[in-house]
């Protein structure tokens, strides 16, 4: 039997196999090593800047700093809008794992209303999650102490001290100053569109109405920031760099606190408005709408109950009656109409008409009544304005026609916004043929012109428009743009602000200015003038014109009986005046809703305002 032979091992083949494997392994190692080197190159060289920034971002945090809002002063330097320190409970949504549980736990420590929680949750949805959002503002000392003792339980929850807007005079200046409130989604989008969002990174409030809104950019200032080093838990270690915020500019007004208080006191519960202006430069001296409301309610978020009460009030406190209240100007525009009549030679200072107590259009049996049922007899332009004879102006209006009246009064500012430095303003209505066609799809009739001639019919104006139009007469054709702000200031400089007078009317005969002003002077100084009784014994020489605006239609043969008419449909009382007569430094308008006659109600209020103005020396020239 043959033995099985054992195969001899092929060392050469094994060596070749080993070498091949070694080469492949070496290639793999080289490739991997190259990949590592390439990756390191990418990290250390190519992407160095990016990763350095990310690294620094984990270590260094940029904290925006809100600027202090500019202050607002009256003409004497009395503070009208200030910044007061308040404590607020703030949360950073990004750092809170369970928002519902956190809010529940916080409500067990301090009182949180459903409205506060709801408002907070709305802001969480509307704002970036890394922003700090206030849950409750104006914390008291007890709440601050409780939250400070429990803060370790709530990551992302802090008690912050901030400056908050405060209006020390409450409702006295509301319609002029306005107020600030939390930035809403629409305003945030607008800031983004305007390229200003970055400047509001640390700001929560923005001007909502009034001067606070109109001068938002000037009052807000410029945001600052701090670069701070933080640890892995986000706790501050040190401040690396700080760029301070630049405070907003302070603004100085022509308003006088004493004159404003006088307006509030004389109006009492009466709905209406008082506005006074220096006709020489347009600076507003008094600006009061009644009733008013406390703007501090809006700064930290007004409650639904309080807002509903304001919104649904019959007295409409939210309406700024100085610039948004539109009233028939009534007889206060008779001097303006007289000027037009003189300029067109429709009348002369010697022109007289017979007033039987009414006016009738040709081929019509309708009587447009004068306020004096038995008439004024023979009347010229002086008597017509002094005693407010309607018949004289009925006839004058028909001779002038609506086209000339509308065009001329438009030049004086009626039917147009005045350009005052707040946005809440109505233009009123200066009716014309085109206006009536567009509004009512009807032609203009002579019967429309008759009441228009005494400031009734479709004609409406704001109290501010009245003083602007009257200043055109006092400045002999130049219009003063009304403005509340008279200067801006910061820590270093103060810049005066006074828009130049704008020429709007050129007269044919210069003496016509004096004729019209003399008629207003006689209204106050002469016995029988409709404002004479109100200014008896005044220490200054005043001039003016009363007006009584009828709101409810009365049958032709009926007698006006205020007691028989709903209170809201009774006549409005109007007055426009100025002083001193020879060198006017103040022009004033008073509008009283449903108060009755202008001479008996509005003129006495204007008298009290002017008494204070001259006694207190509000005018710096006095």
Description:
The chain is built from 21 helices and 23 strands. With 622 residues, it is α+β, with helices and mostly antiparallel strands. Helix 10 (257-267) packs antiparallel against helix 21 (598-615), helix 13 packs antiparallel against helix 20 and helix 15 (390-400) crosses helix 18. The protein is elongated and about 150 Å long. The relative contact order is 0.10.
Quick structural gist:
With 622 residues, the chain is an alpha+beta fold. It is elongated.
Helix/strand structural class? alpha+beta
Give the biggest sheet: 7 strands, mixed
- CA radius of gyration is 37 Å
Shape descriptor reads elongated
Query: For the residues shown, what is the average pLDDT?
Result: 88
Number of DSSP strands?
Answer: 23
Distance between the termini: 150 Å
> Which stretches are low in confidence, meaning pLDDT under 50 for 5 or more residues running?
none
Quickly count the helices.
Answer: 21
As a percent range, the share of strand residues is 15-25%
Query: What proportion of the residues is helical, as a percent range?
Result: 25-40%
Describe how the helices and strands are arranged.
Blueprint (H helix, E strand, L loop, with lengths): L10 H36 L1 H12 E6 L6 E2 L5 E13 L7 H11 L4 H13 L6 E4 L4 H10 L6 E10 L7 H4 L1 E4 L2 H9 L11 E5 H5 L1 H5 L3 E7 L5 E8 L6 E4 L3 H11 L4 E6 L6 E7 L5 H4 L4 H9 L21 H10 L9 E3 L2 E2 L8 E2 L7 E3 L1 H6 L3 H11 L1 H10 L21 H8 L5 H7 L10 H12 L3 E2 L5 E5 L4 E3 L5 E2 L7 H15 L17 E7 L22 E8 L6 E7 L5 H18 L7
Parallel strand pairs: 2-10
Antiparallel strand pairs: 1-8, 2-3, 3-4, 3-5, 6-7, 8-9, 10-18, 11-12, 11-23, 13-16, 14-15, 17-20, 18-19, 21-22, 22-23
Helix pairs in contact: 10-21, 13-15, 13-20, 15-18
């Amino acid at each position: 039997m043959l033995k099985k032979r054992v195969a001899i091992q092929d060392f050469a083949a094994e060596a070749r196999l080993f070498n091949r494997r070694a080469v492949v392994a070496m290639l793999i190692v080289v490739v991997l090593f190259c990949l590592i080197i390439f990756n390191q190159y990418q990290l250390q060289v190519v992407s160095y800047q990016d990763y350095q920034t990310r690294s620094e971002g984990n270590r260094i945090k940029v904290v925006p700093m809100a600027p202090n809002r500019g202050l607002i002063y009256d003409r004497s330097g009395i503070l009208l809008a200030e910044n007061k320190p308040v404590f607020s409970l703030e949360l950073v949504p990004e750092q809170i794992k369970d928002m519902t549980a956190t809010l529940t736990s916080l409500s067990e420590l301090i009182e949180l209303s459903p409205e506060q929680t709801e408002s907070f949750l709305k802001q969480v949805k509307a704002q970036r999650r890394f922003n700090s959002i206030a849950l409750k503002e104006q914390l008291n000392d007890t709440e601050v102490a409780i939250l400070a003792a429990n803060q370790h339980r709530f990551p992302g929850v802090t008690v912050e001290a901030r400056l908050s807007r405060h209006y020390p005079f409450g409702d006295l200046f509301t319609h002029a100053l306005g107020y600030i409130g939390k930035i809403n989604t629409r305003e945030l989008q607008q800031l983004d569109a305007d390229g200003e969002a970055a400047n509001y990174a640390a700001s929560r409030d923005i001007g909502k109405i009034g001067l606070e809104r109109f001068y938002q950019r000037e009052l807000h200032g410029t945001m600052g920031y701090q670069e701070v080093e933080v640890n892995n838990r986000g706790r501050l270690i040190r401040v690396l760099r700080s760029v301070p915020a630049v405070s907003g500019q302070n603004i100085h007004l022509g308003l006088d606190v004493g004159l404003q208080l006088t307006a509030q006191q004389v109006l009492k519960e009466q709905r209406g408005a008082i506005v006074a202006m220096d006709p020489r430069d347009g600076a507003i001296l008094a600006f009061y709408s009644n009733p008013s409301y406390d703007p501090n309610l809006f700064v930290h978020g007004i409650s639904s109950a309080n807002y509903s009460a304001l919104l649904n009030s019959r007295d409409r406190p939210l309406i700024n009656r100085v610039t948004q209240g539109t009233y028939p100007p009534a007889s206060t525009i008779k001097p303006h109409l007289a000027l037009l009549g003189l300029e067109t030679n429709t009348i002369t200072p010697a022109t007289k008409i017979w007033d039987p107590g009414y006016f009738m259009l040709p081929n019509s049996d309708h009587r447009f009544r004068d306020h004096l049922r038995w008439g004024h007899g023979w009347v010229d332009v002086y008597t017509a304005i002094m005693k407010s004879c309607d018949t004289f102006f009925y006839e004058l209006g028909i001779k002038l026609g609506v086209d000339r009246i509308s065009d001329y009064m438009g030049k004086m500012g009626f039917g147009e916004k005045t350009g005052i430095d707040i946005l809440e303003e109505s233009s009123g209505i200066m009716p014309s043929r085109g206006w009536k066609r567009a509004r009512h799809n009807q032609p203009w009739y002579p019967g429309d012109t008759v009441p228009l001639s005494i400031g009734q019919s479709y004609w409406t104006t704001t109290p501010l428009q009245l003083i602007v139009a009257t200043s055109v007469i006092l400045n002999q054709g130049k219009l003063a743009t009304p403005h509340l702000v008279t200067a801006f200031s910061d820590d270093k400089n103060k810049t005066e602000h006074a828009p130049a007078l704008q020429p709007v009317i050129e007269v044919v005969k210069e003496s016509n200015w004096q004729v019209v002003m003399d008629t207003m002077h006689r209204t106050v100084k002469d016995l029988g003038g409709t404002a004479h009784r109100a200014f008896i014994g005044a220490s200054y020489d005043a001039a003016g014109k009363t007006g009584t605006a009828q709101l409810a239609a009365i049958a032709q043969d009926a007698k006006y009986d205020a007691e028989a008419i709903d209170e809201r449909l009774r006549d409005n009382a109007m007055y426009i005046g100025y002083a001193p007569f020879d060198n006017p430094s103040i022009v004033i308008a008073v509008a009283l809703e449903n108060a009755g006659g202008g001479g008996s109600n509005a003129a006495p209020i204007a008298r009290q305002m002017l008494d204070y103005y001259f006694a207190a020396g509000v005018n710096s020239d006095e």
